């Protein structure tokens, strides 16, 4: 309720043309990153865009209406009633947006999630972030004032607009990645033992802030793997051309332990997979799959390890 009230006041100040520059920027950020596509309310992105444009047009209509009536209203007893109607209209807009699942799950943060498809986000500083399916990124509303800090859950490709004065920082659970002018990929799946930072071009540094650990720099063609359990970092060579294949719709594994590969497969195809809890961690999966049925992808993965699967009551059992 507090969030809705603050947005209602913001809407009213925008419509009355009393908003400060900071409030205007807050509204612009709110509108730009408003995501009302959750669920099946829209058939396509054009429909979603159309609804957002209608919302913005209603706000502009209120502004024009207030301009035409302002002088008369100030001199009449109708002013209070009109102001109340204005606030009601603003609150209605907030409730309307809430119905379509606006992504402000925290008043101090903007949050974007990619569900069943990849999502491309262009930040206000020009940085482009591509989110893998079922991945989420969030940042504070004061992004790009003193620093540019974002938090990632899942996987994303970052094409960072470099700024010496304002470092671009990606927080992934236990480690921070600092941009030094670069394009890089980060894998931060909560159920996996490792966080992986793969550098495609430029330079990045990675450190562990709590407790403070050593800073590690990696070069293009290298991947830093941070083990959450053992709390150590390891740098490995990688084939950079494979790292971004997922942005083309492929399901990609780069040296992923078999249990984690099965979890990603389940996430990608929305499956329920059960597998032995012991003896699989030493086996790793490397490969990519484009437009395969889940049965074909799973068979290809299990064939390498001489394993198979069966399906019972919509649950897949590996043996």
Please identify the top-level CATH class of the largest domain: Mainly Beta
The proportion of residues in beta strands is: 25-35%
Rounded mean pLDDT score = 79
Give the terminus-to-terminus CA distance. 50 Å
Total number of distinct structural domains: 3
Instruction: Say what the CATH topology of the largest domain is.
Output: Jelly Rolls
> Architecture of the largest domain, CATH level 2?
Sandwich
Number of beta-strand segments: 16
Helix content: 25-40%
CA radius of gyration is: 24 Å
Spatial shape: globular
* Biggest sheet architecture: 11 strands, mixed
Q: Tell me the number of helical segments per DSSP (H or I, 4 or more residues long).
A: 7
Low-pLDDT ranges? 36-43, 99-105
H-E string: HHHHEEEEEEEEEEEHEHEEHEE
How does the helix and strand content classify structurally? alpha+beta
């Amino acid at each position: 309720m507090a969030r809705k009230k603050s947005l209602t006041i913001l809407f009213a100040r925008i419509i009355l043309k009393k908003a400060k520059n900071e409030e205007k920027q807050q509204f612009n950020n709110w509108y730009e990153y408003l995501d009302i596509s959750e669920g099946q309310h829209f058939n396509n992105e054009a429909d979603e865009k159309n609804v957002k444009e209608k919302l913005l047009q209603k706000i502009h209509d209120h502004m024009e209406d207030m301009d035409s009536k302002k002088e008369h209203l100030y001199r009449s007893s109708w002013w209070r009633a009109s102001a109340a109607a204005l606030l009601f209209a603003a609150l209605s807009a907030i409730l309307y947006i809430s119905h379509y699942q606006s992504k402000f799950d925290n008043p101090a943060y903007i949050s974007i999630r990619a569900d069943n498809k990849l999502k491309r986000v262009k930040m206000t500083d020009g940085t482009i972030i591509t989110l893998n399916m079922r991945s989420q990124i969030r940042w504070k509303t004061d992004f790009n004032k003193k620093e540019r800090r974002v938090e990632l859950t899942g996987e994303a490709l970052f094409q960072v607009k470099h700024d010496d004065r304002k470092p671009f920082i990606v927080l992934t659970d236990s480690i921070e990645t600092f941009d030094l002018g670069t394009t890089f990929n980060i894998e931060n799946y909560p159920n996996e033992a490792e966080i992986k930072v793969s550098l495609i071009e430029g330079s990045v540094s990675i450190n562990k802030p709590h407790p403070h650990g050593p800073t590690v720099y990696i070069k293009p063609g290298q991947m830093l793997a941070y083990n959450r359990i053992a709390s150590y970092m390891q740098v490995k060579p990688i084939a950079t051309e494979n790292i971004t294949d997922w942005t083309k719709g492929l399901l990609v594994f780069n040296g992923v332990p078999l249990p984690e590969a099965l979890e990603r497969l389940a996430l990608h195809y929305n499956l329920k997979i059960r597998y032995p809890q012991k003896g699989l961690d030493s086996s790793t999966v490397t490969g990519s799959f484009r437009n395969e049925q889940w049965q074909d992808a799973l068979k290809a993965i299990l064939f390498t390890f001489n394993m198979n699967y069966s399906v019972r009551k919509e649950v897949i059992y590996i043996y």
